[in-house]
């Protein structure tokens, strides 16, 4: 018997106020200036939300804080309620818009910095922690910004769709356009085809954008990208490629397929200008033109300064004392041939500081 009573007592749960299934009454709006927002009663006058959907709580709030509104009668009473409704709706709309905009801004920064989408949750923790110290009364505002992994991914997708739509509208104004295609390989060893478009409008405005970046499973990706952005072959004036056989072959490669498509559309393929991409021409020239007399001196000087910890620290202190434009020299990487320009430009800018440092260092060594 005791065991049975014990089981009965154990199964009895404590009654929760939220489990009473209270429903908002429409007459509370007319009587107490309250409306329902996301399942909670919200005061139209002060915007305060009550925790429990209960008439006694609503009436107590109205009587203690807004009893003077009893003076409004008839149409004035209804006009006041309607005006407060519109004001609350505008506030919620502005709040929702700002929260959504903040989510887009942070998501754009995450995408720009090439950070994982999960970083949004960490950023939100930082925002909330800073808000708790700086603006404790607005912590809930920062907590309402959605930065979950899925949200950041959706925001980036939405921004990509907006950019694509904008590019489509821009492409419609092109009088003529040309394409530049370059094949590269990402860190997963997957071949990627980068397609750039450069167009000119009737007002002679030049615009250049990245049209598409797609995995290379077929050269027809270029034609698909043109169709996706509604770029007609009638306005295609030229194609620049990296000179690879998959690009400039005469049978099934990129330029051949494009010319076949133009022939199918009764266009003259001979009007299409096919050239080697200028950036690759510069790369070939850079490898052919060694500039040994310049590069050997510059590289050896930089190595003397940066490869030794003491020299590097002393050189940075010298630049700081002289208030130079830059704080240090930069290395040259043979694989990344474009870094040669940055290295030479930085060295030329700091040539007087380098000369002074080398003279002092060599004199001190003697």
Automatic annotation (TrEMBL):
Domain of life, source organism: Eukaryota
One protein family per Pfam: zf-C2H2_12
SPIN-DOC-like zinc-finger domain boundaries: 25-77
This protein's name: General transcription factor II-I repeat domain-containing protein 2A
Species annotation: Merluccius polli
């Amino acid at each position: 018997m005791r065991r049975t009573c014990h089981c009965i007592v154990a199964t009895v749960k404590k009654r929760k106020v939220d489990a009473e299934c209270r429903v908002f009454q429409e007459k509370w709006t007319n009587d107490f200036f309250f409306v329902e927002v996301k399942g909670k009663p919200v005061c139209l006058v002060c915007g305060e939300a009550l925790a429990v959907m209960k008439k006694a709580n609503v009436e107590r709030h109205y009587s203690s804080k807004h009893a003077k509104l009893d003076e409004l009668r008839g149409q004035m009473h209804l006009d006041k309620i309607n005006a407060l409704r519109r004001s609350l709706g505008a506030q919620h709309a502005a709040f929702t818009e700002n929260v959504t905009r903040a989510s887009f801004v942070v998501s754009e920064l995450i995408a720009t910095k090439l950070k994982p989408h999960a970083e949004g949750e960490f950023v939100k923790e930082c925002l909330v922690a800073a808000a708790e110290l700086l603006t404790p009364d607005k912590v809930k505002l920062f907590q309402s910004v959605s930065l979950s992994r899925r949200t950041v991914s959706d925001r980036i997708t939405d921004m990509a769709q907006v950019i694509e739509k904008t590019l489509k509208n821009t492409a419609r104004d092109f009088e003529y356009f040309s394409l530049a295609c370059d094949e590269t390989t990402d860190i997963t060893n997957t071949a990627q085809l980068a397609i750039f478009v450069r167009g000119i409008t009737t007002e002679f405005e030049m615009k250049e954008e990245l049209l598409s970046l797609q995995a290379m499973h077929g050269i027809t990706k270029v034609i698909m990208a043109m169709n996706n952005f509604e770029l007609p072959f009638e306005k295609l004036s030229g194609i620049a490629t990296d000179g690879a056989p998959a690009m400039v072959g005469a049978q099934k490669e990129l330029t051949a397929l494009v010319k076949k498509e133009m022939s199918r559309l009764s266009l003259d393929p001979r009007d299409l200008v096919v050239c080697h991409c200028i950036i690759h021409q510069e790369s070939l020239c850079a490898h052919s033109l060694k500039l040994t007399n310049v590069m050997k001196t510059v590289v050896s000087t930089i190595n003397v300064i940066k490869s030794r910890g003491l020299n590097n620290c002393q050189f940075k202190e010298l630049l700081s004392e002289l208030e130079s434009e830059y704080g240090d020299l930069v290395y040259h990487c043979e694989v990344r041939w474009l870094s040669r320009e940055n290295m030479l430009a930085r060295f030329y800018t700091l040539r007087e500081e380098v000369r002074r440092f080398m003279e002092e260092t060599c004199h001190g060594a003697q």
